[in-house]
Amino acid sequence: MGRHRDIGRTFSSGHQNRLKKQKLNNFLKTQRGAMDKFNIVTSSPPIDVNVHKNDKVTNTIAKSNATSSCSPLFLPNASNFNVEPSTSKIDKSQVDKSVMLPLLPVKNTLNCDEIKNSCSDDNKCMYLPEDLRDPSRWPEIMTSNIKQAILEIGPIRITNINFPVKSHNNNRKFSEKYYYRIMPNGEKVDRNWLVYSLSADCVYCFPCKLFNHESNSKSNIVNIGFDDWKHLLETLKSHEVSKCHYQCITKWYELKNRTSLSNKIDKLQLQIFEKQKQHWRAVLKRIISAISFLAKHSDAFRGSSDVIYTKNNGKFLGIIEMLAKFDPIIIDHVNRIKNNETHVHYLGPQIQDEIINMLALKTKEIILTKIQQSKYYAVIMDSTPDISHKEQVSIVIRTVIMDSDEEPSIKEYFLNFIEVKSTTGLNLSSVLIKELSENGLQLSNCRGQAYDNGANMVGQYKGVQARILKNNPRAFFTPCAAHNLNLVLQNSAKVSTRAVTFFGFVERIYNFFTASTQRWNVLKTHCDLYSVKKWSETRWESRLSSIKALRFQFKQIINALDDIIDITDESIAKSEAQSLYNEVESFEFIISLIIWYDILSEVNIVSKQLQDPKMQIGISVSMLKGLITFLEKYREYGFQKAENLAKELAVSIDIEPVFKIKRHRKKKRNFDYECSDAISVDSKEIFRTEFFISVLDSTIVSIRNRFDQLQTYNNNF
C-alpha cells in the first residue's frame, strides 16, 4: 500500500509524458524570437531617387525623409499585426502602435540628374562610378572600413526611370511596386532592404548581401542578384520571412545603430585619437620645415650629440630648442619628452635622413613632371672628383617652361650625382642613357647636348656627344660657349714665354702681399681703389680683375714695394720685394699690362653675354664677330696705342720708356759654308713679334675655330 499522500493521485504513462514534452517543445519553437518583435530598433530608410509625384506612398515616404521625420519600420515576422505607416492615409485606429519602430533619416542622397544623364534613349542605364552604392560591385572580401562606408551610404533606391526589358525574361522588367509589401489589410509596407542594381539589372537584399558570410545563404537575391521578374514576388515573400534574412536585418540595425556618429560608444576615444593625430601632424609640420630650411641652405644638421638641450647637439636640435621658446606645439612636445611621457619624438638622426630623402624624392618628382610636360629638353653633364677622391658625374636638364600665366622661360634643373668608375666616352654615355631612362625621360625627346671640351666628351667618334648622336641624330651638341672663350684665353696666355712670365709675376705680386698682414697693411695704405686679386684658370673673370688692380694702381704698387724694401728686416721678404720691384718697373711689363687689359676688357664683355641665362644665339654670334673685328683692328693699330699709354705711365713714375736689349745666344756653326743667323737688333720689334702679334693671332684663330659650330647653328635657325 502506498503512502497516504499518494491516495487518489494518478500518474501518466511514459508515452503520455513523451507526447506532453514534444507538445511543449513545439510550442516553444513557435514562440522563439517573439519578444524581438517588440524591440524598438532605429535604422535608416532607403533613399528614394526622384520620386514620382503621382505615387502617393512613394511621395509621402520621400517627404518623410526630406523633413527628417520618423517613419515606421516593420520587421519581417510582424506580418500578423495590423500595422500602419505614419505617412499613409489609413485610419490610425487600425494600427497596433506597439510594433511601430521609428527610423532615422538617411543623410546621403543620390542625385537623380546623374542617373538620368547616365541613361541613353533606349532606356539602357549606365551605372554611376560609385561602386559602394551598387551591391553588384561590392568587393568579395569586405573589411570593416568598407562595411562602415556601405552602412553610412545605406540602401540606394532607384525610382522614376524606365527599367530595361530582358527578352529572355518574357519581356518582363523590374517595377517600383516591388519596393513595397502588401499586408493582409491592404497596407503598403516599405521594403527598405530591397535595392535595385543599375549595372546588373537585378535586385539584392541589402543586409543579406552585406552579411552573407555570416548567413551562408545560397539564394540569388543574396549572392549574384535576382532578375527572374516573373517569380520575384514569390521570392521576396519567402525571403523576407526566412531566418537568415531576419538575422541579417537584425545585424544591420544593430551595427547601424552602434556605428552611428551620434551613438558611438567609443566617441570619446575617437576624439582623443583625433586630437593626438592633429598634435603629431602639427609637430611633423614644424620638424619638416626645420629640415627643409637647413637643407635649402646646405647647412649641417647634427653635432656631437643627438640629445635635445645638450651642448653641441647641432643646428637642427638648436632650431627645435628655439621654437620651444614661443611655439605652443613644440613647447608641449618638448615637455612630453622631458617628462618621459613619450618615447617617440621624431628628432633623431634617422628620421632626419628619412624626411630629407622624402623631400628629395618629392622635389625630383615635381621636376620630372615639369620636364615631361615640356617634352623636349637638353642635357648638360660634367664630371669631377669630389673631396673623397671619387669621380662623380652631375646631370642637369635644360627645358623650356610654357606656363600659361607667365612668359615662356628657360629653366635648368639638377637631376642627380652619379659615381662613375670610368670616364671614357662609352661609360659616360651609358650612364647618361640609363639615368634618363630610369627617370622616364625618352632619349628621342632630347634636342641638345652641352659638355665641357674634354676629348671624352666632345670626341668626334668616341666622345659622349658622338655616341648620343648615333641614338638620336636630333640631339645637337653645343659646347659651352663661355667655357670655350675661357679656353681661348688660356691658350693665348701660353702662346709665348713673355705671356707666361707676365702672369707669373702677377701671381707673385698677389702672393707676396697676402703672405703677411704687415705687407698687406702697407699695400692698403697706398691702394684704396682696388685690392690685388688672385687669378685662376677656372674663374673666367679673375684674369681681368687681377690685371685691373695693377693697371690703375701701378704707381701705388711700386711705392708699396719700395716701402717694404725699406722697412722689412726679413732677408727673404726684402729679396722678393726687390725682385718684384725690378721686374715691375721695366717698360716691357708696363706695355704688357696695358695690352692684356685692352684685350681682356673686350673679351669679358662677350663672356658676360655668353653666361647670361637669357642669352640669345643670334646676339652672341654678332658679339663674337664684333670681338674678332676688334682684335683684327687692334692687331694693326693697337701696339702703337699701347706704347703711347705705356710711355705716359712710365714717365709719371720716372721709368725710362725703352725696351731692354736682350743678348742673343749664338748658334754653333757646324759647316764653313753656313752663314751667321740674321739677328734683329730692334728690341721693340722683337717684343711686338714675339708677344703682341703671337697673342692676338692665337686669340683670333682660336675664336674662329671654337665658335664655328655656333655660327652653323645660328645659320640653321
UniProtKB/TrEMBL annotation:
Residues 178-267 form the TTF-type domain. SUPFAM superfamilies: Ribonuclease H-like (SSF53098). This is Zinc finger MYM-type protein 1-like. It comes from Aphis craccivora (Cowpea aphid).
